[in-house]
Structures are given as structure tokens and as C-alpha cells.
Amino acid sequence: MFDTIVALATPQIKSALGIIRLSGENCFTIVNNFFNREIKFKDKNKIFYGYIVDKEKEETIDEVILLAYKNPYSFTGEDSVEIICHGSPLIFEKIIELSIKFGARLAKGGEYSFRSYVNRKIDLIQAESINDLINAESLESQKLSLLSLQGKTSKLIAPLKEDFASLLSNIEVNIDYPEYQDIEVITFEKIVEICNKNLKYIENLINNGQQGKIIKDGINIAIVGKPNVGKSSLLNSFLNEDKAIVSSIKGTTRDVVEGKINLNGIIINFFDTAGIRESDNEIEEIGILKSKQKIESSDLVIVVFDSTDLSKEDEEILDLVKNKKHIVVYNKKDKLTNLDDDKIYISALKNDINILKEQILKIFKISKDNYENPSINNARELGILQNIKKSIIDVLNEVQNKTSIDLISVMIKDIYLEILSLTGEDCDFDITKEIFSRFCVGK
Question: What is the model's pTM?
Fold first, then answer.
């Protein structure tokens, strides 16, 4: 059992109410030392009304509602107490002080969620979704994180887990218990069948996860071009405010100017960069260097031209973005006479940029399903899926090379362990548990 921890679960500011949470083996005993009623009950949980009292000083601290939870019927899976008090930082401080005095300690960052994970109330995907839910900047991102918290994303792992657990168990029984007659003999053909089936499934998970990650984390877009092509005007048009300074003087923008919008549920971070050109001004050169760095770190680059006749500098900018996702737009549409149907024209000054917004959404191909269905969209989880995909391809190559089934079994075990690591189940993996849970080998 863990020791008892205490922390403020609401912001450390003046408010109508605040919540102080304790969790651990001795939390009821600790709170009984400063609550005017005894916390004693047989049910899963109970609500108490009373007063927090410093009994040593015979001083009443606050009138509170106290929620008591018996293990395992709490968020952490431990005995827990939530004290709902009035929202004064002085009251928060006093209640926490009394909790520590009688045996609790201050919780560390994320410790309540960690205990919930360790006590198997939530898996690792759910634990990570808590932080995503708190940091969500759009309703769409919030909905995706909530699907993960509800366990719906974790269920996407179940088919992978089942197939490779069954495959691994069968292979192990074939090797270690050859006399056992009631088990399917695993052939290379069967391994190829299962691997190909799950390879396709994983590729779909990765594709959907990458789309979900865009909805959850947003997109970074750099706006680049020569000086005076309308980059700052375009940023202002997107933001619908005059954030970037607009001037006819070349080199006005010398640092990256940032702005953020919500476009159809996707958070987009825009970066207006310094005009890219040859310059002998040291400060402007630093700004140009930052522009080039921002091109590298962005998910998409909008290249702005103000004429269809490209100069040498324009061509150099196109060369900088050739390996990046990019959109080329021609600004100052209202001043151009001959328009090409194959090009995108805008007028940033007149807020005529809808066609550009549509093009941004089109490039990232976010569908209705991506907004509504669970997806494995966390960077850690997507990285593991990529590793599993590579490992399955390696198994298929080894099968083609007629590698020993014993060595292939080791590779499949590694794949299975990576699958378990998605939800954090790999910490107590034992292959014998998988074997005996499926077959009567040990009778």
C-alpha cells in the first residue's frame, strides 16, 4: 500500500469552492484528527457534512462537505477523501497543513493518476488522455481525449493483443509440448496470414492516429516570402486583428510573429516570418535565419508571392520548401489582371482568403470520422505503432528466409510486448499466463 498523499485539486486562487484530495491507506484516520465527525461507513462511498477543526487550538477552520470513498471505489483505487471547502487560499493552506501534521505528505505531479494506473483503475492510454483533456484547446480535441479516457481508444488494441497472444501461445505450446494434440500446429503460412492481417490494421491505426493528432495538437504553419508581399497582412487577416505591423518599408518584420485560430475544430498556430532576401543588415539577417528555421519546424508552409512573374529570390524560396508540405498563394489579387485557373489567388488586405483556408483543410484530409471516432493519437503511442509495424515486416522477411520457428517466436514475443506497452500492461508479462489462460496444458 502507498502512503497517504494530499493536494489541492482546484486552482490556488480565490473562488466559490475548492477541493482538497487525500488518498492512501490512512486517509480516514488522518482526516478524523481534524473533522468534527468520525468518518466511519460500510458503503462504497458516503457524503459527510461538518466542520474542519484545529482541535489543539480549539479553532474552527471552515464548514465543508466531505466525500469519502472506500477502496477500490475511488479514482485512485485507494481509500480517498475529497474535502469541498470555501475557496480561500488561506483555508486551503490550513487544511493541507493539518493533513501533513497528522501523517499525509504533499502529492507529486501526476501522482493521483499514477496510483490509479498502478491500481489498474485506468491504463496508460487513459492516463495520458487526462493530461490531453486538461490541455485541450478545442471542443473537438476535448472529445477525442474524452473517448480515450472512457477506454474506447484502448479497445482498438484488443484485436492486436488477441491475435499475437494466440499466435505466440500456440507457437510456444508447439515447441514445448509437442505431445499435446488439441492445439493447432502453427505453420509459416499461418504466421504470414496473421501478420499481413494485422499489418493492414496497424497502418489504418497509424493513419487515423496521425489525423487525430492534428485535431488534438493542432498544426504549425509558417508564412514565408520576400519582403512586402503581404505576409503580415495575411496573418492579420487570419486572426481578424492587427497583430503584425504592416509597412511598405522592407524588413519591417525582423522576428517571428505568432497567432492562433480555430479552423473547423483544428487549432492552427501561424508564424509570420521575416522577408527572405539578401541583406547586409545584421539584425535583419538574424530574422531571415529564424524564417528558415521556422520552415523546417512547421507542418505546412504558405509561400506568398505578389506576382505571377517569379524573381530569382522567389525561386530560391521555393527551393527552401520543396521537401515540405506547402501552398503557393498569389496575394494582391485585386491588383492582378490575368488570373490563372491553376493558381491560388488571395487578397489579404481585403480579407479574401477563404480559398486558402479550404486548401489548408484539404491538404490534411481531416474527415468527419476523425472527429467522432477514437484514435491512437498520442506521440508515444504512434511511435510504438510504427515500431510494431516495422517488427511485423521483419517477421515476414524472416519467414520468407525460412528462419527457425524458435527465432521467429522470440520476434513475435517482442511484438506482443510492444503491444502491451501501449496500455502499460507489459510490466508484469508472463508467457505462461497467456498459455495457461488459453489451453489446459498444465492439467
Answer: 0.81
